[in-house]
Design a protein that fits this description.
Low-confidence stretches: 1-10, 19-32, 44-60, 182-186, 276-291
Largest sheet: 11 strands, antiparallel
Radius of gyration: 28 Å
Distance between the termini: 101 Å
Helix content: 10-25%
Strand content: 25-35%
Length: 486
């Protein structure tokens, strides 16, 4: 009976080992590598059972195995005396990597780097310092955007001007212009060459870098030189030390899930589900709808923060039908709807009342914008759900949607927005680790749960107390004196 109740762990491990490549370093280490780009990959290092047994025999003492620190809770295999999980085939098995063990590893030494800065002329001095450090200290081929390549602040530096020139007849310059074209070959598209990125600015600069790489994105080192900097944990003063650590490898890496947004033409099945009576909307006639369908070109965009669907400049309420895995969940009546990733939960979704989620939580946040209902609260759904948003048949006007605050597009009748979690995350380098950086950003940037501490019952505020008092100038009462009365 125990053989039937116990979950077949050994069988699952053998089946999982066939789906991943495990290489042994010596006799004690195992590393699992997951490729990110051509040179970057993720590694997990751990000890085998043989090394643990050998250490215990040498010490001569039996030690209880300490639970490995992970973001996932332990899970039992049996449920009651006879219930267990049914065995499944290999297609239902999923190897989930612990986010706290993700570290950057280079399969080959990095060679190409892209440096992006925010739109501010005051950053050109530190921007030039980083370029010269990458080119002359690390001998890296550095790419910059076209607006920076042609800037007078870069051209005025003699060392950078020399880096723009080839050193020999068969060599190419060390400082190049970053160009994006439709060619997917490695030699003709600079986007496929980049090994890692350096962002100088704030959260908007990181969103811009995410928009440049709509598929596989290299690791990003974000240096805070913007306004808020919640997603930028590094400071410029120690940028040389940080860059040296990134080039060497072994730094903690946080994979931020991105959402894939696609505008598609509604099928007949979806139109019947949205409008069972077959009534068409009054804001667009059928000939115009057929014309728009012929001219329609599907769009596929990745976003790091959120997809916002709203009423735009229309004075009417937004009537949006929300589907989750092809099931009509609800109709949104309000100013709009926010479909957010865990990274975007501390952005627009937080302002709309949604919960803040750590980027390692595999989820999608759905938050309404000013709903005309007291019971419509934000919800969190699994990351693997397929979401669809379309206009209700009785909607009085069209809607507008944007992706990370850009690419504003009109949503008309007969079309819907398909949103799901993308297979291409955004790898960002963490300063301390994947968990503490997030809590530190909540405290320093968003001032989360900062309050004047309550005093004990047997104490009160005095002039020698460390707790500051309120300003006397703004809250003081005007007391009339004898001179005022006269």
């Amino acid at each position: 009976m125990s053989k039937l109740n116990n979950y077949q762990v050994e069988e699952l491990s053998d089946r999982l080992s066939k789906k991943i490549s495990i290489t042994k370093n010596g006799d004690s280490d195992k590393s699992i590598s997951v490729p990110l780009t051509k040179r970057a990959s993720l590694t997990i290092n751990g000890n085998t059972n043989e090394s643990c047994n050998s250490n215990s025999e040498q010490n001569g003492k039996t030690k209880t195995k300490k639970r490995h620190r992970t973001v996932y809770p332990p899970m039992q295999k049996n449920y009651g005396p006879k219930a267990t999980l049914k065995s499944v085939t290999d297609e239902y098995l999923l190897l989930v990597q612990d986010p706290l063990s993700q570290q950057l590893s280079w399969t080959n030494p990095p060679l190409y780097v892209l440096v992006i800065k925010k739109l501010c002329n005051d950053i050109y001095k530190p921007f030039n310092d980083i370029l010269k450090f990458l080119i002359y200290e690390h001998k890296l081929i550095t790419f910059i955007e076209e607006k920076d390549y042609d800037s007078e602040f870069v051209l005025s530096d003699e060392k950078l001007r020399n880096a723009m020139k080839p050193l020999g007849t068969n060599t190419k310059p060390s400082l190049r212009k970053f160009c994006i074209n439709e060619c997917k070959t490695l030699e003709k598209n600079d986007r496929n060459k980049i090994d890692f990125l350096i962002c100088l600015g704030g959260d908007g600069t990181l969103l811009h870098a995410s928009g440049l790489f709509q598929q596989s994105c290299p690791p990003i080192l974000s240096i805070h030189m913007g306004s808020l900097g919640f997603l930028c944990p590094f400071d410029f003063d120690s940028h040389r030390k940080y860059i040296n650590c990134v080039v060497k490898g072994g730094v903690p890496l946080l994979l931020r899930n991105r959402l894939k947004c696609k505008l598609e033409k509604a099928s007949e099945t979806l139109q019947k589900l949205s409008d069972p009576n077959g009534c068409s909307s009054s804001n667009e006639s059928s000939p115009n709808r057929e014309k728009n369908s012929k001219d329609f070109v599907p769009t596929d965009l990745l976003c790091l923060n959120e997809v916002v669907v709203g009423r735009g400049c229309s004075p009417f309420l937004s009537n949006l039908d929300l589907y989750v895995n092809d099931y009509l969940i609800t109709t949104v009546q309000g100013d709009g709807l926010i479909i957010s990733s865990p990274t975007g939960s501390t952005a627009y979704a937080m302002a709309a009342g949604a919960s803040m989620c750590h980027p390692s939580v595999q989820s999608i946040i759905i938050a309404p914008i000013c709903p005309h209902s007291l019971s419509f609260r934000p919800i969190v759904v699994p990351a693997g759900c397929d979401l669809k948003v379309c206009l209700s048949p009785d909607s009085r006007h069209t809607a507008w949607f944007s992706v990370d605050g850009r690419n504003t597009t009109e949503l008309k009748q007969g079309f819907y927005i398909s949103i799901t979690t993308s297979e291409y995350p955004l790898p960002t380098i963490s300063r301390s680790d994947q968990l503490n950086d997030w809590f530190e950003g909540l405290a320093t940037c968003l001032h989360w749960n900062q309050r004047q501490k309550q005093l004990p019952l047997n104490s009160c505020y005095t002039q020698n107390s460390k707790i500051p008092s309120r300003s006397s100038s703004s809250t003081s009462l005007k007391i009339k004196t004898e001179s005022d009365e006269t």
